[in-house]
Amino acid sequence: MASAPASLLPDLNPEAITASGKDAEKLNLPALQSKMKSDPEGYEMELHLIYNQFKSSMELFQQQAAMSFTSVSGIAADPTVAKDLGDRALFLAHVTPFYPKHLAQFPRELAQFLRSSARTLPSGLRVHVTQALILLINRKMVDIVDILELFMELQTLGDRTLRTLAFSHIIHNIRHMNQKHKNDPKNRGLQNILFSMLQQEDETKAKRSLITLCDLHRRKVWFDDRTANAICTACFHTSPRIMIATLSFLLDYEKIEDDDNSDDSGNEDEQATQQPQIVLSKEVVYKAKHKGTSSSKKKKQAKLQRVMRSMKKQQRMSSEKNNSSYYSPLNHLKDAQGFAEKLFSRLQTTNERFEVKMMMLKVIARTVGLHRLILLNLYPYFQKYVQSHQRDVTSLLAAAVQACHDMVPPDAVEPLFKQIVNQFVHDRSRSEAISVGLNVVREICLRMPLLMTEDLLQDLVLYRKSHEKAVSSAARSLLTLFREVCPSLLVKKDRGRPADPKARPKAYGEVKVASNVPGFELLKDDNTESEADTDDGFTSSSDIDDDVGPSEVEVAGDSGSSDGDDNDNDDQDIDDQGTTSEDDSMQEKNKDSEDDDANFSSDNTDVISDDDESGKADGHDPAESSGPLSIASETFRTDSGGERGYKAGKRKFSDFNEQLNAASQSLRALKKLAGAREGSTSETNDGILSNEDFQRIKELQAKKDASIALAQHGFKIPSTDQLSAKRVDAAKLEANIRKKMTKEERLALIRAGREERGKYQARTAIKQKKTGGLSNRQKEHKKAMPLAAKRAKVSRSRQEKKRKQQRSGKQFRGRKAWK
């Protein structure tokens, strides 16, 4: 074994130590440690003495381990020797930074000592030597890459204290190493060690490496594809325990909470900035608060609240999906198809118990749904277990729903779909089974609507009239889905008022290809509407060119009336179904306004002709007259009945040719103005969108989603990506099902209701415990009465007693039996 150079260590003999008054047996190691740290050069002799003692004791333990010496009389049987060796190892580890040349070989000797004789050492000595090695790692005297394999082996010795110490140090050291930035070279070296241990056939080593990798992945320290693929590969380990542990981690990953020690300040800031934004039109909010009766207002306001809640939930789900916290090792499989096929082949040949098969089936279904894989043999395998009396059938059905997506041919899933309907949804089935079956049918049709036929849908929708709440709500949810997906499959009375009556599901393999920036049409429509608004109005002189004749007033008025009609029609679509009377009144108002606009436009044409004629009579050309002056000269009046008229002089009729010339000149002016505007828009719109445009698109999209949600009563069909990323919860398939409580649960519920209630007391007892003053009867007893009143009261009581006695003496006692 290597030792320190002889030139660096002074010659020592016991006489010199005794002469100096520093006996080795009386050395106080903590006091000596503090002195050596303050004056390293003055205590080199003591360092040499303690180092030699440590090496001699270590050699004895190594020789005992080499000879497999297990006798009771061995050196390990003496606890004082083991304690002295552990104390000296900790002492030397503390002073190593102050003596780098004298103790250069000490860390290597300590690690070699643990490798060679860790199994034969006492538990306390193993822990002390490991603590000394950890201290050297923290002081940067030893690299974690050189010592990781040793620490992984120490966890397999069966010592719980040592296992906890080694495991916690590995996790803490790797977290601290990647705290500020990712140290990729070191991470790759450490990962290679753990990955090689994970693939070994030794179950204990593979299990410890798997636990370490899973913990680092859960804490988001090693959050890369390499670690995720290594964890998923452990599903094919030869040991069933390793496979079960990996499957449990993959299934329960989304339920694992984040580490409490992790810094979440950045995440809180991001969450604060990403609050869901709900954009509702002012008109809808105004109608909900100010129009209609009180009951209709309540309905509209409740509908607004439902829509806002649903939209906030959808935005929160989308932000969680875009956030890095939404992550599972299955998301980043390099060969997802190969992983699913290999695991499914192992499932078909395994002899494990039913619970393990269910776990494997869930992982396969999750992978198929997440990556939208095609595994056609999976669906006939599900058919073996789809029965109402099967154990854990709800979890099995949730896995079957998870494995369905739009890339699977409908013919492959149709036998499974029919079996679910036949086994669960029939008249002789229990209400719980019917509700679960309807919910499963709804979830499958949400992903693959082509499976549903018209006759089957109409039969299933009839269950909405059931007296069981779970069954009726499941049937109504299926009806609501097909009102949006394909209303033509429903009977006309069941269609309601869908957003798109001609909606149909996409055919198998049909894909919509985006040819433009998403939402660009909204921005374009918004720009056209804003330009139309600026062109509208009669008193704005800046928007009217000098070459425009009076006929432009008529065109603007017509466009404004058409816009108003469109807005009214949109408002009618947004209103509730229950407010039909308001819709009728709104339609009558729209008709009246259209009649008024028509009359107004005819009046304007008459006026224009009069003006043209008057202009000709005066010698002025109507085309040369300025638009603003002619418009400003027009005066409108409003009658008491609400009809609009025009205040003008006596009408004059001119030749038809003059009117035709004036109309042609005004038409040329309109064409000229339209060409100028097209040129200006072509100059400004160069096809490149700015940040303001994207922000405006986002606002318009939110406004459109709000209007659609109002029309659909808050119901929105999620996209394909959202369905594939969403995990199907088996508990939601059993919604609204009332399960019978056990006696213990009922008693617990009763006791929970009695906690806040005090001890039982009679009502009279509660009344007697008064905290206020005396009652009226008590006050009457204590009232001071005059002497005459007291005598009268006494006499009345005497007379009452006499009457009672007389009545008791004359009372009939019945006839005697012997007479």
TrEMBL record:
Annotated stretches, region: Disordered: 287-326, 520-650, 756-819
Pfam families per the record?
A: SDA1_C, SDA1_dom, SDA1_HEAT
Location of the SDA1 C-terminal domain: 772-817
Q: What is its main location?
A: nucleus
Q: Where in or outside the cell?
A: Nucleus, Nucleolus
Q: Which residues form the SDA1 N-terminal domain?
A: 91-466
Biased segments, Polar residues type: 316-326
Q: Using the record's annotation, list all stretches that form the SDA1 middle domain.
A: 562-753
Under the heading InterPro entries, the entry gives: ARM-type_fold, Sda1, SDA1_C, SDA1_MD, SDA1_N
Any GO BP: ribosomal large subunit export from nucleus
Record's GO cellular component terms: nucleolus
- The answer to whether UniProt assigns keyword Transport to this entry is yes
Q: Where is the composition biased (Basic and acidic residues)?
A: 614-623, 636-646
Q: Which UniProt keywords apply?
A: Nucleus, Protein transport, Ribosome biogenesis, Transport
Q: Where is the composition biased (Acidic residues)?
A: 563-585
Q: Where is the composition biased (Basic residues)?
A: 287-303, 779-819
- Please state which protein family the record places this protein in: Belongs to the SDA1 family.
What the protein does? Required for 60S pre-ribosomal subunits export to the cytoplasm.
| Name assigned to this protein | Protein SDA1
